[in-house]
């Protein structure tokens, strides 16, 4: 919702869960920016790459990495992150559990992103990281 108020040219939501996309669709009905929602297996490099636009100014990965890692393994989660990073021109935002931070930082650094801000919530055990392309 906050991003929609900044006037983006597109809000593109991806998820592997139809119920999550349906919830996003309800929220996005109230935004004025163009939206696109795609159901895609995030660990499937070919299909993920096929639905992504050429480039995004901002990519947000909110509590997704740990689910991919748990369901598909570390290598698949890192490939997903790398694929998303390849399509991110400027800012990559991640929210995740702290134990996944080393893998996320390493993967995004290898994709030419620098960590510019890190915050967290101890009560919720969530870390928030902001990376910028270098």
Strand order of the largest sheet: 3-4-6-5
Q: Secondary-structure element order, as H and E? A: EHEHEHHEHEE
Could you give the count of β-strands?
6
Strand % is: 25-35%
Characterization of this structure:
The chain has 134 residues and is α/β, with parallel strands linked by helices. It has helices at residues 18-28, 45-51, 65-72, 74-86, 101-110, and strands at residues 11-15, 35-39, 56-62, 88-96, 113-121, 126-133. The strands form 2 sheets. The chain has a 4-stranded mixed β-sheet. It has a two-stranded parallel sheet with strand order 1-2. Helix 3 (65-72) crosses helix 4 (74-86) and helix 4 crosses helix 5. The longest helix has 13 residues, at 74-86.
Key attributes of the depicted protein:
4-stranded mixed beta sheet, two-stranded parallel sheet, 5 helices, alpha/beta, 134 residues, single chain
């Amino acid at each position: 919702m906050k991003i929609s108020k900044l006037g983006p040219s597109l809000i593109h939501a991806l998820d592997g869960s139809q119920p999550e996309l349906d919830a996003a669709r309800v929220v996005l009905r109230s935004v004025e920016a163009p939206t696109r929602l795609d159901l895609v297996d995030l660990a499937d490099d070919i299909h993920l790459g096929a639905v992504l636009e050429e480039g995004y100014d901002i990519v947000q990965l909110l509590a997704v990495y740990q689910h991919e890692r748990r369901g598909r393994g570390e290598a698949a989660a890192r490939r997903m992150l790398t694929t998303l990073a390849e399509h991110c021109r400027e800012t990559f935002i991640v929210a995740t559990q702290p134990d996944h931070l080393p893998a996320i930082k390493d993967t995004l650094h290898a994709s030419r992103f620098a960590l510019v801000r890190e915050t967290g919530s101890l009560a919720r055990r969530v870390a928030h990281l902001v990376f910028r392309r270098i």
